[in-house]
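Re: the request from the purification team.
They wanted to know what the chain is likely to look like in 3D before they choose a buffer screen. I agreed to run a prediction and write the result into the notebook, where they can find it.
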Amino acid sequence: MSKYIIGIDAGTTGIRAIAFDHDSNILSNAYSEFTQYFPEPGWVEHDADEIFDVTMAMIKQCVEEGNLSFDDLVAIGITNQRETTVLWDKNTGKSVCRSIVWQDMRTADRVSAYNEKYGDKYYGKTGSSALTNSTGPKIEWIMANNAEVKAGIEAGNILYGWIDTWLIWKLSGGKAHVTDFTNLAGTLMGDITILDYCDDMLKEFGIPREILPTPYVTGGFSVDTDPEVFFGHVVPIAASSGDQTASAVGQACIKPGMVKNTYGTGSFMVLNVGTELNADIPIESGLFLETANDIGEQHYALEGFANVSGSAIQWLRDGAGVCTNAKEAEELANSVEDNGGVYFVPAFAGLPNGSDPYARGTIIGITRGTTKAHLCRAAIEAMAYQVAESFEAMAAYGGVELTAVRADGGGAKNDFLCQFQADILGVPVERPVITETTCLGVAYLAGVNVGFWKDMDEVAEKWQCEKRFEPRLSEEERKKLMAGWKNAVKHASGWLKGF
């Protein structure tokens, strides 16, 4: 049988494992959701032990359903939801508390206090303002509110990591405690100017460096699995990555000026800006300054994000009962000529780019004639509006011309969304043949690291466009729609401060 690579995407709501051959063909694809916990309003938690168990099950399912052999597995790459905490006992190998997910809002007051104290002082180092996404305040919160965990840290029994760190530690039988530097973006813990942790921030949040994984640039490590853990086989884990920079590799955005957007639980736009970062980007841009995944010459990237994208459709399905699935939402959106004046600001976890943690979800413009079709259309359009705001900032500060956007993730399968995105951006949107680009990207990184593929240029040549969406709106129509969106955002702003 042919040799293959497995890319694992440990996402926010589930685990996906995909096997790729040398020609980037998908040999097998396994996916399963895991449990989401919401113990308090605005809180989101995961069980890291469950995440590991589901990961192992998906790897096994991927191999078995593809009629593959572990003997032909060349390497593994792991990409993950970023900024989500994992703390575990290094003696028992079990997590010691639930993971606080990147979407969690419990640190809103701490984040606001940090920004008032420091403003933009550390923005050029850490690459972001303080957001509720940020990991540093989450770890601080755990140590302040869980005496048992704090005692375990002080006794030297507990380790910290992101999801990739946790999975690698478990798969290696506890031999490796590592992460890729792309996972430090937005955490307030990394210093992008030296590619290491920021000592000032570790001191600010009271985090001992000793509990943290060693950060590497992409391709800087390769760790063998423990055969007692990994189905009796030794396989190199040859890459890990933050999910969005891995997706950029899967979209072949390895040259300056190339940009992708992923429509997943949230929406994430990444622009490759080359080997140097613009030193004059203001904190008001709302962008992350981060490393790009590249094996070879080190590149940097700008990233804009919205916490809620596809999860707005999930809410329409599960919370409001408006539709039964994403396809029905698209069909309903297409059944009306326009949004009927309705705007949906899905600020379930604050506003896009973390600009206002006190905002909350708002549906505005409802009349007696509003139907569930208008609500579905407004929710899908909101996904595009949020991307447009990041696009505007990137165009202003990226130092490169943005001429097209490559779209991926579950939402990219939605023709209505891709067309509206092109309309509201005023540039083409290109959808690749393979839309699961996070798995593909980290598979490429692992494969290049072990010599399965020659270099990044070889894997970039494999990218294929499945469909290209050209903008159709006039500039006047585009500005009118964006003005309506920005007005709706104003009404969602500061909701929790209004009482």
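For the purification team: The mean pLDDT is 94.
Please add any questions underneath this entry.
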